[in-house]
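Comment thread on ticket #2218

A.B. wrote:
> Attaching the input chain for the structure job we discussed in standup.
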Amino acid sequence: MDKNSISQHISRQYNTELEDIRNKVMSMGGMVEQQVVDAVRSLVEGDERLADVVVNNDYKVNAMEVAIDEECNVILARRQPAAGDLRLLVAVIKTITDLERIGDEAERIARMALHINDKSQVDRFHGRIEHLGELAGKMLKGALNTFARMDAEMAVEVWREDLKLDKEYDGIMRQLITLMMEDNRSIPSALDTMWAARSLERIGDRARNICEYVIYLVRGKDVRHTSLEQMEAEARNK
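C.D. wrote:
> Ran it. Output below, let me know if you need it in another format.
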């Protein structure tokens, strides 16, 4: 299945409905991407105003999930789609759920920016948190691009990026644990930084999920809980 396949129905209205759904997923993805970028920036720069913006905008992400989900349900009931169209709607419903959860993680990071009391204790980690945020944001953008292009092979490449993100996350966690052992005054702030890092690691996991949905959409194969080698084979249709 490719992105042109959804424009081959006799019903022009049906084509429009499916294209509208895809466009709304991309709009929601763009909004969530910005939430992640702003959340990390608010934490690293100590920008409480920007953190408030992220927290206050979370309802918009939630509203988009509800609206797209309702639209999918209407199409399912009215059109009774099969094959590729059904996979598209299933992939959309799963993708918007992960996007909503990514929005929640961004909100959580922004709240950390508001709650960290002694920022001097964790200043040394700002560079690494920023780098972790860049890796997570890159994965999210890549996952959305694979969805837009319906590119299964690209989805595997984006999925693979999660290995780098996990390695960076493990390194930050080790350093934070060392910090807390050396100076117990740093424990409250270090724990907040740990939770922020954990949120970014989860964003990578959810971007990886979206890549798996793309492979399901394009190849019709559920690659969840399979090895990377199996996923690559399915993506290449071997």
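A.B. wrote:
> Thanks. Noting for the ticket: The chain has one domain: 10-234.
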